């Protein structure tokens, strides 16, 4: 065998080895990309689920803030003696001495 043939044989063997290494690297890269894609897909689902929960909690927060504001207004109004008197008369059906209470039942539909 001449040195040119030996060099050609070595080059073919190196090319085979290089091809195998490249193929192995590509397979590993493909596996990594599949794993990364599956993980990303899973994370997107979780993010959407959490976004829905956040939106629901934001809505509950708004309702709680509205209830809080209504309670604050009621507290301020309860400091007014006229309002307290009206509330007692309406809710507890109290009357002053000498007054007559007329009760009208609500119509049922």
From TrEMBL:
Coiled-coil residue windows: 47-74
Claim: Transmembrane is one of the keywords in the record: yes
Keywords: Coiled coil, Membrane, Transmembrane, Transmembrane helix
Transmembrane segments: 24-41
GO annotation (BP), single: cell division
Pfam families in the cross-refs: DivIC
Highest taxon above the source species: Bacteria
InterPro entries: DivIC, FtsL/DivIC
Database matches in PANTHER family: CELL DIVISION PROTEIN DIVIC
This protein's name: Septum formation initiator family protein
UniProt organism field: Paenibacillus xerothermodurans
């Amino acid at each position: 065998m001449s040195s040119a043939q030996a060099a050609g044989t070595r080059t073919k063997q190196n090319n085979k080895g290089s091809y195998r290494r490249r193929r192995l690297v590509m397979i590993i890269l493909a596996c990594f990309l599949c794993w990364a894609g599956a993980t990303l897909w899973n994370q997107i689902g979780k993010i959407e689920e959490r976004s829905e929960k956040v939106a629901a909690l934001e809505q509950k927060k708004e309702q709680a803030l509205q209830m809080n504001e209504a309670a604050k207004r009621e507290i301020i109004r309860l400091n007014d003696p006229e309002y307290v008197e009206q509330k007692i008369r309406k809710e507890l059906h109290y009357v002053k001495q000498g007054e007559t209470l007329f009760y009208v039942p609500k119509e049922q539909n």
